[in-house]
């Protein structure tokens, strides 16, 4: 599937919007089924009990933009590392044509960050991969070393949920960092803050001066240490990571973090469980019901439902009802 919707997808989506934002199965031509499936996969159409509902394309644009920006960083890292990867071949070729030898001016292909240069400085270049041999354990070890070296500021974008073991390990490291005077800002997704274990740890970090916010938009995992070193996933399963040391690239990643931070909401708005009625309203919205239909189903006034929806939008940082419904569908557990 390409990054952008094709002509058929655009035409069908616009037709749904012109029809009021809803598509009934009986109005769907057999030839359009593949197009509908593609729109659902992209998140532009949402299945409901009565058919399909149009979703806000802005969410798709934000997600694709994030993916493309991270892809660009990875390509830049790969381009910078390629000469070093080919260095053994270059040396063999040059030895054949220059038997007298001489100084090889090619750059050093560093396998590790530490010990790469006699003065202890970090190697030149965009970044290096870690975890190729040791997997996720090697990545965690690298992050532990960078946390131990961090002196002023630690930025973390942590989408999704984490296991209890990972949370406990990162908590000890983060508290040690905060207690030696470093600042720390962390981005979470609202769904992660619904987990009691995560909430407890956010509170412990906040007690030591850390800041946390929730962002109900797609964003990529990223760690930045003292605005000089960044760690991003090198593969989807996060068994390998790229440690970025190029100043321009790290500055770009920091700018992306600051942009997301400015749009996020304080984590304390997500602390504590929402009212049971708010939860029920959220579940009905996630099923595609309108505000009026929710009010009728629950026997509430539309004004009361609107107040609960307002609290949900604030909790999840949703700008529109479409955006709220998109996020609630992602957080639904049966």
- The dominant shape is flat
Q: CA-to-CA gap between the ends?
A: 28 Å
The share of residues in extended strands comes to 5-15%
In the CATH scheme, what's the topology name of the largest domain? Endonuclease, Chain A
Contiguous runs where pLDDT drops below 50 for at least 5 residues: 99-127
Would you count the extended β strands for me?
Answer: 11
Oligomer: single chain
The largest β sheet comes out as: 8 strands, mixed
CATH class of the largest domain: Alpha Beta
Question: How much helicity do the residues have?
Answer: 40-55%
Give me the Rg, rounded.
24 Å
The order of strands across the largest sheet is 4-10-9-8-5-6-7-11
Can you count the helices?
13
CATH-defined architecture of the largest domain: 2-Layer Sandwich
Question: Can you tell me the CATH superfamily of the largest domain?
Answer: Endonuclease Chain A
Order of helices and strands: HEHEEHHEHEHEHHEEEEHEHHHH
Number of domains: 3
């Amino acid at each position: 599937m390409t990054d952008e919707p094709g002509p058929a997808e655009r035409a069908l989506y616009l037709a749904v919007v012109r029809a009021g934002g809803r598509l009934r199965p009986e109005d769907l031509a057999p030839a359009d089924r593949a197009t509908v499936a593609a729109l659902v996969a992209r998140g532009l159409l949402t299945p409901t009990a009565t058919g399909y509902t149009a979703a806000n394309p802005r969410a798709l644009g934000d997600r694709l933009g994030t993916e493309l920006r991270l892809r660009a960083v990875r390509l830049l890292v790969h381009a910078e590392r390629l000469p070093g990867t080919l260095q053994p071949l270059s040396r063999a070729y040059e030895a054949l044509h220059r038997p007298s030898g001489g100084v090889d001016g090619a750059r050093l292909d560093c396998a590790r960050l530490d010990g790469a240069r006699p003065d202890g400085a970090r190697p030149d270049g965009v970044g290096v991969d870690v975890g190729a041999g040791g997997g996720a354990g090697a990545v965690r070890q690298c992050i532990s070393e960078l946390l131990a070296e961090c002196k002023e500021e630690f930025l973390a974008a942590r989408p999704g949920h984490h296991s209890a073991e990972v949370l406990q390990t990162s908590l000890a490291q983060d508290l040690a960092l905060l207690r030696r005077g470093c600042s720390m800002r962390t981005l979470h997704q609202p769904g992660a803050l619904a987990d009691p274990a995560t909430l407890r740890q956010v509170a412990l970090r906040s007690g030591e001066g850390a800041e946390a916010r929730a962002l109900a938009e797609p964003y990529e995992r990223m760690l930045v240490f003292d605005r000089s070193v960044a760690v991003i996933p090198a593969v989807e399963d996060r068994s390998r990571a790229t440690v970025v040391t190029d100043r321009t690239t790290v500055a770009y990643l920091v700018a992306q973090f600051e942009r997301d931070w400015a749009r996020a909401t304080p984590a304390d708005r997500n602390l504590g469980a929402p009212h049971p009625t708010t939860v029920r309203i959220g579940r009905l919205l996630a099923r595609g019901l309108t505000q009026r239909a929710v009010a009728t189903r629950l026997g509430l006034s539309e004004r009361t439902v609107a107040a609960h929806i307002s609290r949900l939008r604030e909790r999840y940082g949703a700008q529109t009802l479409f955006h709220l419904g998109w996020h609630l569908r992602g957080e639904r557990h049966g």
